Amino acid sequence: SPLCSLQCRSKTGQGRRRRGRLAGAPARTMPSSSAADSGHGVATATAPSRDTAVEGFVSSLRTQDEVDVLCQKHGVPKDQYTARPAGDLRANSTPPPGSICVYARALEAGLRFPLHGFFREALAHFGIAPAQLTPNGWRVMEGFVALCRSAGVRPSLAVFLRFFYLSAIDRKRKKGWYCLGPMRDSSSLRFTGMPGRGSKAIMGWRHDFFFLSSPEPWHCAVEWGAPSKGSFRKPALTVEENESMVKLLSAHGGVAVDLRNLLPATCPRLRRRRRLWNSNPAVSAAVITTASPPPPSSSTRTTSCSKGHGSICL
């Protein structure tokens, strides 16, 4: 029809003008799913995208000597455990028989072997492996044990869960890394002074891991898992646990405790020569009296959680 003929000629003319305007200009292409930005604004199909999931990290501890030096530095008993480089295994790979994955930064944060009874209980409660807890998560648990020691109370998981909560680093990955943050109650226990993202104590922590085997049961998950919904419920407190909670709050509640004073070996200070004091005199006194290196092993004694009040999810 005349109308159809007119529309066809109009579309043809528009196409010619569009091609004329684009003449001499480089063709624009949509990058494929595997394309990555080279840094100059040009998409290249050969550069793979960076995988930030657990599977994307290979351990940088490649030799047995590196692993042995690390274990010796942090007091891992050679007569009870055997440490081996991860090789091509990922941190969340099925571990060798009798083994768990261990991050070097977790050792720096206070993780010790044999595992402290409170640590075993917490890991078993949530159903996660030791490597699933971030380095600062270990600092939170170590700090809680230190505060309990200074208050003269037994570390209790039920009490701990009244003050801190577990949260996934990436909610899309249930069997991934987890961190610990303080409850939002202003009178609750909370910590400050933990290393941040730019700290040498944190940078690259996902790349430094190995496997540690034991002839004895670990009494916690060895393969990476996901916490059950029931594990996030607050357990009822016994009479003794209620008393412990009152003692902890009276000694340390309301003001953040600086872990650089409480656990100086696991939370190194910056080079600035400035003494850090708590504004609460009672807390300062407790911190000073309990300042000590990481405790010995139990044989002798957005991320989603970044929304937590004062938590550092690393």
Automatic annotation (TrEMBL):
- Name the InterPro entries for this protein: Transposase_28 (IPR007321)
The segments labelled Disordered in the record are: 1-48, 288-314
Q: Which residues form the Transposase (putative) gypsy type domain?
A: 100-166
The molecule here is called: Transposase (putative) gypsy type domain-containing protein
